[in-house]
């Protein structure tokens, strides 16, 4: 009897010790979950509808964008064959005289051109040369009927050609080349096929005419830039080789140097007679007749799904918060 009274006294002091924990209590009852969702169905429908309508309005407000692309093939590098052969044949003899002919392989000119295309320097020079900063940074939409761009009046005045945007220091009303480069690398896309070596350059813009024009300019400018690099290097090499000829009396070495100068002259001549120096155009850029974006159906679908997910989360959180109270 005393033991029973003592046990009852202990249970009264520590009631939690008498309860048995059931692992199933921590699991969510699916029937309860569906019941909660059903009870909050009108809230879910309302929020999902709002998001769906909002996504449709947002999608319709987005201007159409157009993409133009060109398919290019790497130009042959036959002008480098003579120099590579000389480097392999007379490299040891020339090194004895203190002359470095370089490696027989060298850097892939096509890959170098692609990296130049992606560089900040090329983008800055391209933007400044063709004066495309307003078309890149301040456009709102393209008027198809007049084939003209509509600029953001708060950013740029096309009549006076002045920048009006309000920014904090160190930024200025006219965007810097660093800002322009961030936007430029988003509208240009460069892809190289590993199996064929073909290169595709594409530009996306509000105006299909501008997209086509920029692709054409990019191909022309990269060919010209790589040509000028090789010509300048060949001229410097020729000047250096002429100085080396004056410093040596060894007939074999002088013969090698003369042949090297001849190869540099061939490089200059080859560059001057060919406009498509690095890339040959297989399929030129065209003015697109169909829009490339935006993907309005996808925007509407994602907006609706986001709204439904947010609504479900709100309903469930409200239920469990009330349950804990």
TrEMBL record:
<keyword id="KW-1003">Cell membrane</keyword>
<dbReference type="InterPro" id="IPR050445">
    <property type="entry name" value="Bact_polysacc_biosynth/exp"/>
</dbReference>
<dbReference type="Pfam" id="PF02706">
    <property type="entry name" value="Wzz"/>
</dbReference>
<feature type="compositionally biased region" description="Polar residues">
    <location>
        <begin position="1"/>
        <end position="11"/>
    </location>
</feature>
<feature type="transmembrane region" description="Helical">
    <location>
        <begin position="42"/>
        <end position="61"/>
    </location>
</feature>
<feature type="region of interest" description="Disordered">
    <location>
        <begin position="1"/>
        <end position="20"/>
    </location>
</feature>
<keyword id="KW-0812">Transmembrane</keyword>
<protein>
    <submittedName>
        <fullName>Lipopolysaccharide biosynthesis protein</fullName>
    </submittedName>
</protein>
<dbReference type="GO" id="GO:0004713">
    <property type="term" value="F:protein tyrosine kinase activity"/>
</dbReference>
<feature type="domain" description="Polysaccharide chain length determinant N-terminal">
    <location>
        <begin position="26"/>
        <end position="129"/>
    </location>
</feature>
<keyword id="KW-1133">Transmembrane helix</keyword>
<keyword id="KW-0472">Membrane</keyword>
<dbReference type="GO" id="GO:0005886">
    <property type="term" value="C:plasma membrane"/>
</dbReference>
<feature type="transmembrane region" description="Helical">
    <location>
        <begin position="298"/>
        <end position="321"/>
    </location>
</feature>
<dbReference type="InterPro" id="IPR003856">
    <property type="entry name" value="LPS_length_determ_N"/>
</dbReference>
């Amino acid at each position: 009897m005393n033991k029973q009274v003592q046990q009852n006294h202990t249970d009264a002091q520590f009631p939690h010790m008498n309860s048995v924990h059931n692992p199933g209590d921590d699991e969510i009852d699916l029937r309860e979950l569906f019941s909660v969702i059903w009870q909050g169905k009108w809230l879910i429908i309302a929020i999902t509808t709002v998001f769906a309508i909002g996504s449709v309005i947002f999608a319709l407000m987005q201007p159409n964008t157009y993409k133009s692309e060109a398919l290019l093939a790497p130009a042959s590098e036959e002008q480098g064959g003579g120099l590579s052969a000389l480097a392999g044949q007379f490299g040891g003899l020339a090194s004895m005289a203190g002359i470095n002919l370089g490696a027989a392989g060298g850097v892939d000119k096509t890959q170098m051109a692609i990296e130049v295309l992606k560089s900040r320097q090329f983008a800055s020079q391209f933007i400044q040369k063709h004066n495309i900063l307003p078309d890149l940074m301040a456009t709102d939409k393209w008027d198809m009927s007049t084939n003209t761009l509509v600029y953001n009046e708060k950013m740029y005045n096309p009549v006076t050609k002045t920048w009006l945007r309000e920014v904090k220091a160190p930024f200025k009303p006219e965007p810097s080349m660093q800002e322009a480069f961030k936007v430029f690398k988003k509208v240009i896309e460069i892809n190289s096929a590993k199996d064929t070596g073909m290169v595709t350059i594409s530009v996306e813009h509000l105006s299909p005419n501008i997209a086509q024009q920029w692709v054409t300019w990019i191909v022309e400018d990269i060919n010209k830039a790589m040509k000028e690099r090789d010509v300048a290097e060949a001229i410097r090499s020729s000047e250096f080789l002429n100085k080396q000829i004056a410093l040596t009396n060894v007939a074999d070495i002088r013969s090698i140097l003369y042949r090297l100068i001849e190869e540099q002259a061939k490089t200059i001549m080859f560059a001057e007679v060919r406009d498509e120096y690095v890339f040959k155009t297989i399929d030129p850029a065209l003015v697109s007749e169909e829009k490339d974006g935006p993907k309005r159906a996808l925007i509407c679908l994602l907006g609706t799904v986001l709204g439904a997910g947010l609504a479900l989360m709100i309903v469930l959180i409200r239920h469990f918060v009330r349950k804990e109270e």
